Amino acid sequence: MGLALDRDLETKIRARAEAEGLSVEAYLERLVHADQEGAKELEALALEGLRSGEPVEAGPSYWQEKHRLLDERLSKTSGR
Fold first, then answer.
1. pTM for this one?
2. Is 4 a domain residue?
3. Does 58 map to a domain?
4. What is the pLDDT of residues 18-69, one digit of tens each?
5. In angstroms, what CA-CA distances link 4 with 7, 8, 15, 74?
6. Domain residues for 42?
């Protein structure tokens, strides 16, 4: 398969591949594989979040409480 790349991008890809001791093809294969693994991990985390319990509505009062708890926590640690 042939790909048409911007000259600057091609130069960067070649430099990175060479720095890792890889051919451009092997380097791009590694990038695609990492992207696929990242997508799988993101999907797994999203599903874990969906299954983690009842949904919480994050309205203004939710965030006010979060800020209050954070301020409280920070005030305890800043006195050290």
1. 0.63
2. yes
3. no
4. 999 999 999 999 999 999 999 999 999 999 999 999 988 899 999 999 999 9
5. 9, 12, 17, 53
6. 1-52
